[in-house]
Design a protein that fits this description.
It contains two helices and 24 strands. It has helices spanning about 75-85, 110-115; strands at about 5, 30-40, 45-50, 55-60, 65-75, 90-95, 95-100, 115-125, 130-135, 140, 145, 150-155, 160-170, 175-190, 195-210, 215-220, 225-230, 235, 245-250, 250-255, 260-265, 270-275, 280-285, 290-295. The protein has a 24-stranded mixed sheet that branches. The longest helix has 10 residues, at about 75-85.
Length: about 300
């Protein structure tokens, strides 16, 4: 095997703009149609399965769980009827709180007559809690949390604060995924059509998108696998990071602070960085891979 040091390769360098992490609204839009409170205490589990609506989860240092549902639209009476059709059920059993609903099954003529309806499920839980959240059509916003997390949306963005726990799974079919900080043993991140922004990561990560960019900041060595079919991958890491590297892209750009020993070509690099360590794999079918020095 030919071995040499790779200081840098000529390639396409693009400016990277991180997706913003939105804040929670100070005032809710529309009309409140449901309100429940349970005293669960830290260490509980929140399960949400709502077919249509945004889900916003804040965290606090108290022991209770608050659940509210808000609706809005041009025709508020119609919005209330849609809420009734969804048959929301909120329960507490042991240390688990669940929120479920069904599809409202609206006809096209009803849309034309009454206009659209918006729905938000707003929940507050203790900071130390597990969360398993699913919506078919809506965004999910999750604040800082200490616990295991699963977020799924068929059509919506996932926006997440600082998460610490054992395992996290974030998936959406059509939307961006943005996470402020991850300190997990394992994390899986998937979107079919959208960007992935992982601001600060400690732990193993598998991230993939079919059509979008991936941006990630690595804080410590761990297995990392990044894949996109049509997009750029930008990796920020300390220059002392030890890894077994495999990059495959249309163009590569590696900062001079990093030294890789192994096989080097214009589109592919495999080798050891700083003596080797966990896997750092990245590939894009149509795009660039950039490895840059982190400033975090």
């Amino acid at each position: 095997m030919q071995s040499r040091h790779l200081a840098a390769t000529a390639g396409l360098v693009l400016a990277v703009t991180w997706n913003p992490i939105p804040t929670f609204p100070q005032q809710r839009r529309g009309e409140q149609v449901l309100s429940e409170r349970f005293d669960i205490g830290p260490g509980g589990v929140l399960r949400v399965n709502v077919p249509d609506g945004d889900i916003e989860i804040e965290t606090h240092g108290d022991s209770w769980v608050d659940i509210e549902v808000w609706v809005w639209g041009r025709d508020l009476e119609w919005a209330r009827e849609v809420f009734e059709r969804m048959a929301f059920e909120v329960r507490s059993q042991g240390n688990t709180v669940s929120v479920t609903a069904r599809s409202a099954r609206r006809r096209g003529s009803e849309y034309r007559r009454h206009g659209g309806v918006g729905l938000t499920v707003a929940i507050r839980i203790p900071r130390r809690f597990d969360a398993d959240i699913t919506t078919e059509d809506g965004d999910i916003l999750l604040a800082d949390l200490d616990g295991d997390v699963t977020l799924n949306s068929s059509d919506g963005d996932l926006m997440v604060g600082r998460i610490r726990g054992l395992a996290a799974h974030f998936e959406t079919s059509d939307g961006d995924i943005t996470v402020a900080e991850l300190e997990m043993e394992t994390t899986v991140v998937r979107t079919s059509d959208g960007d992935i922004d992982l601001r600060t990561v400690a732990g193993s990560v598998r991230a993939s998108t079919s059509d979008g960019d991936i941006r990630i900041t690595l804080r410590q060595p761990a297995d990392v696998d990044l894949r996109t079919s049509d997009g750029d991958i930008t990796i920020y890491a300390p220059p002392t990071l030890q890894a077994n590297v495999s990059f495959d892209a249309e163009d590569l750009d590696i900062a001079r602070s990093f030294t890789i020993v192994g096989r080097v070509s214009r589109r592919r690099v495999t080798g050891d960085m700083n003596g080797g360590g966990p896997r750092l794999d990245a590939s894009t079918s149509d795009g660039s891979i950039s490895l840059r020095v982190s400033t975090r």
